[in-house]
Fold this protein.
Amino acid sequence: MKFYIINSSPRKGYNTSQLLDKAVEGINDTLNDTSNEVKIEKIDLYDLQYTGCRSCFLCKQKDGPFYGTCPVNDDIKDILEDMRSCDGIILGTPVYFADINGMLRSFIERLCFPQYPYADNLDITQKRMPMGIIYDMNIKEDNPSKPFYDTVFDFLEDMFLARVYTKPYSLKVYNTYQFDDYSKYVNTWFDEEDKKQQRQTQFPKDLEEAYNMGVNIAKDSIK
Ligand SMILES: Cc1cc2nc3c(=O)[nH]c(=O)nc-3n(C[C@H](O)[C@H](O)[C@H](O)COP(=O)(O)O)c2cc1C
């Protein structure tokens, strides 16, 4: 069985990456006792050279050689091909400007658009594997802008990911620890003590939720 874990944070080993690693543990622990051979590929998007969709529309060309796939030949071409038939996908993104970040946006354009038909009642998805998405952000959960963020995330999940693949499990992680040492940066918005407190009390629970997401995706993959 093959799972793809996509890290769109440039910071290896930070919040998003740690959460994804926990999800990997959840997948491994769940499928450990089964006879399935499990391969989990963790991809750091910032290590790769690629662009978003180039709007060539070859993926939608009638009887064309690239119908339903993406012809653009760069570092993610083979990954995208393999992902379309894999058994589970977890995306992890730092939130930039109240949305998923640019690297993940470009990646999703290339992953989803070839199998997103411009027609009702037409399903050209190769496989509907279980999915998860982890959003990692600075704002606190009681921030007045939270409903706006939720609308953005829900729209992506319901209108695009669910239409092309499946409705993803969704985990939102708030008030993340952003700097190693807050005193080194110009910042009057975020209180280091509050962030430390959050790190010690809430982040372990977030990691647990990420683990549970991995468990759920693994279970769904063998249903
Ligand atoms: C360019 C940029 C834009 C950001 N915009 C937001 C934002 O709109 N809302 C928010 O809550 N956090 C924002 N953040 C903070 C990140 O989401 C937060 O630090 C996250 O934990 C980073 O994930 P990482 O630690 O895995 O890299 C922004 C950070 C950067 C670098």
Q: What stands out?
A: Residues 2-221 form a domain with the Rossmann fold fold (CATH 3.40.50.360). The chain has a mean pLDDT of 96.
